[in-house]
Amino acid sequence: MSLLTVSQLSKSFGAVRAVDSVSFEVRPGEIYGLLGPNGAGKTTSISMISGLLKPDSGEVFVAGAAFSADPQKAKSIMGVVPQELAIYEELSGRENLEFWGRMAGLSSRDAKARATELLEALTLSDRAKDAVKNYSGGMKRRINLGCALLHKPKLLLLDEPTVGIDPQARLNILEFIRNLRATGTAILYTTHYLEEAESLCSRIGIIDHGRVLAEGTLAELQERIGGDRVFVLEADFKNTSPEAWPGFLQRFRVLQKNEKQLVVAAIGARDPADGLKELLNLPVHIENVSLKRPSLNDVFLQLTGRELRE
Predict the structure, then answer these.
(1) C-alpha to C-alpha distances, 64 to 14, 115, 204, 275, nearest whole angstrom
(2) Pairing state of beta strands 186-191 and 31-35?
(3) Residue 299: which of 207, 225, 202, 212 has the closest Cα?
(4) Burial of 162 (0-12, 13-18, 19+ CB in 10 A)
(5) pLDDT at position 309
(6) Beta-carbon neighbour count of residue 249 at 10 Å?
């Protein structure tokens, strides 16, 4: 059974449709990545799932029960790590953890014991008594994560948990999250970092303008636009139009084009060597052509017509 089921969630702010009929599910031991650019609807979705915002329509189910039927029970099952740091800068790391443990319903004794466990797991034991205001950005992100884990939630919502930190700190947090998956925790992970979604997530939903455009495993998403048949052509494409080449759009899907490069995916289950022969016979002097596995950015380009980071 899925620990989280999101069914047809929608939310508007005035004339802006921030989330538009979004549906997906997250299973125990799975990291489901909600991938999209800033402003795509990721944080609004998290806010509705966690009860901070009321959806205009749709429903959230936590462990099979409707969130709206018993919000407190649903919240007791989940931990939420917001994009904005939800910690007290003047308090120490340990004091932050113990405070949020008590807020989650733990006894003072249990909160202290659990805080000790998390400080060790997050490699912050040596800084436990220091005020959080003196922590680095990566350390603050780790404490922010720890504050959501005091009550050992079965469902964890992570909204851009590595934004604005250095690469080493990011790697530390990602490794910690991988270990959580091994305990059976269901994790919803929002990000706009391609490499995080590719390396971390069991399944990925691509969201833009409030709608989930596609979802699946990385391999399934790659296969969607040509599997291993994506070609990168280098030439002078300044005054060219692939649409005008006879039969080209019936055989290839254009993923990206600029003055010096054209990225295309072969349509249909053709041998890559056949595709290469056709491309070399185009009415353009091809300087170089290479074959690659499509990335998530290629998938995003095919779905939206723009780079993920635009």
Answers:
(1) 32, 30, 21, 48
(2) parallel
(3) 225
(4) buried
(5) 56
(6) 14
pLDDT value at residue 307: 62
Rounded Cα gap, residues 267 and 247, in angstroms: 12
Tens of pLDDT, residue by residue over 264-304, are: 888 877 788 888 888 888 888 888 988 887 778 878 777 77
- The predicted pLDDT at position 29 comes to 94
User: What is the C-alpha to C-alpha distance for residues 232 and 248, in angstroms, rounded to an integer?
Assistant: 15
Q: How high is the pLDDT of residue 192?
A: 83
Whole-number pLDDT of residue 156: 95
Q: Which of 306, 309, 296 is nearest to 224 (CA)?
A: 296
What CATH homologous superfamily does 4-88+149-221 map to?
A: P-loop containing nucleotide triphosphate hydrolases (3.40.50.300)
Specify the fold of 226-293. Alpha-Beta Plaits (3.30.70)
Q: Where are the domains of the chain?
A: 4-88+149-221, 226-293
Q: What pLDDT is stored for residue 155 in this prediction? A: 96
Residue ranges for the chain with pLDDT beneath 50: 310
- Half-sphere exposure of residue 150: CA atoms within 13 angstroms, side-chain side: 28
